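Need tokens for this chain, all 134 residues.
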Amino acid sequence: MIGKLNHVAIAVPDLKAAAWTYRERLGARVSVPQAEPDHGVTVVFVELPNAKIELLHPLGANSPIAKFLERNPDGGMHHLCYEVEDIIAARDQLKAKGARVLGDGEPKIGAHGKPVLFLHPKDFAGTLIEIEQV
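Here are the structure tokens for all 134 residues:
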């Protein structure tokens, strides 16, 4: 069902500093910040040969990332994103196997402009999972 790893998302308290670290210290190609108001975040993508790192920063006080950073003030890994060919079929298969889909269960458009869903971390060894249709 799942395809390749699309990205690892890391919540950061200082987006500019985190982007600088990946660009200047590690020599990575880093995108410009992109506001995602529907998700309450500003994102920066670090391009790797085999996947991406998504740096997440809160966009507004009600951002889920603001709540994450309250518990983890230095930041940290937030979620893993896997690719799927058909997000509705993947959702239905996952639900049939007992996985909980967060929110209303309907895909939303993610930072890559593609449909995404999030899966409850308690169903995946304590890790929040995002699936993205490719």
